[in-house]
Amino acid sequence: MSAHDLTSLPPPLPTPHLLSLPTEILQSIYLFCLSPHLPHASPVLTTALSTEFIYKLTFLYAFWNINPLVFVGTQDQQPYEPGPHVRCLFRPLPVPQAQQYDAEARTKFQETVLAYRWCTFNRAKLYFSSIIQAATRDLFLSLNITLTPHDQPRLQSFIAHLPARPSTFEATALDGCHIILEYPRRFATALLMIYRGPDPRFDQRSSPNLNIRPTEVLVIPSHALTGEPEWTEEKVDFLRMLCSYVNLRTVQYSLPAFHEGMMNAVVQGNYEALLVLIWQADRLAEYKDSKSYVRPPFEPPAELFRLVAKCGTQDIAPSGCHSSDTNFNGPLLSIKLFTLLLRAHAEAMPQNDPDITTWAHQLLKYEDCAEYDQAQPFAQWVLDWGIQKRRSEFLEFRITNMRVSDRVSRRRMLFSGGGVSRYRAPIGKETVRRFVGLCGSDGRVKGFEEEAEGAAESLKA
After folding, report:
1. Beta bridge mates, 71
2. What is the pTM of this model?
3. Which domain of life is it from (predicted)?
4. Average pLDDT for 412-422
5. Helix orientation angle between 302-314 and 331-345, rounded to the nearest 10 degrees
6. Cα 318–Cα 323–Cα 327 angle in degrees, nearest 5
7. Would you tell me how many other CB atoms lie within 10 Å of the CB of residue 96?
């Protein structure tokens, strides 16, 4: 080849660069690896991967549970085979048949996904709902359940979204099988089912006899617990949804984040946020020690009691008027917040605390005002409880479980789970009676779950 021929050759093609690839190929690369770091590598990649299609598949892979059907009873669990609706939901990717990551990596992946700006409450609710829809439709196909023309649209409407209230669907199929489906909590990410029919996988003695839980939440991220920068109704409902159906023994969370969220709820005067936080913290505390029969209570930090008292004191002007520079609407809200803390763990309230005593004495000044009819007796209850000797006595009793009999001790507390404790000490009976008269209704105090969910009787055993 001559020198002239060499100089006449076309210049070499530029080396292909990842960012120069078409959007469809960039999306395929991302779906192949599902690396949470890829969207942050470049603004070009961020734009290419910012589509509803990518959001949905990222969320599905982060939260999919490879064992979405859990049959109740002693029979062996059958391996799950994805049906056409679940396969369509994951298309073009295959439905995961085995965990792609270990538990730690999956937890980090979920935490990353929940921190994305696109992972809003409404979008996450839509994705959770779509997974439940697909899994339920495939289940009905596998059971050959055919509903009446009246019940079929009712079922579709029932599973079309996560309801804001516990709700139930009940129907009898054309072959005589009876079905009950229940969302046991507000924005629940799982369904409970009772099936009365010939399928041998169902234990007819159990109610419910199937849990439909196609997703698995492994972590409650700190930003969902703190409510920063401000608690809103949407943030409270997002927290409800994440906590609605988790493994209470293994789910990851930060207790300091719980405390920070409670502090923020108190400062902002958000009763609903504080209620949900205390309820979830109490649920998690119950299963903190899986080897013990003793139910460990959630213990609010002493500073939380003091913070309610300080905010309540600031909200009472010397003349009896309301302060205009706080989030409180008078002392009645601070009483409600303080009541929540007492129901969580009354024994955690600091004794002879100056901030709490000052607040209670200010409440006593308004005994002649009709608006403060509740404030005066409640303040006296707080003052009495603040100086009352609290015995750290334990009740010893026997628990028999699986032929093993153990003697265990349970601390005699005033309240448990938000309601009056059945194991309270005799010395506390009069104290509880006065409290129920002040803060209860129909002679009782609701538990946290009953108040937070407004739930009626559930299918749960």
Report:
1. 210
2. 0.86
3. Eukaryota
4. 85
5. 170
6. 145
7. 14
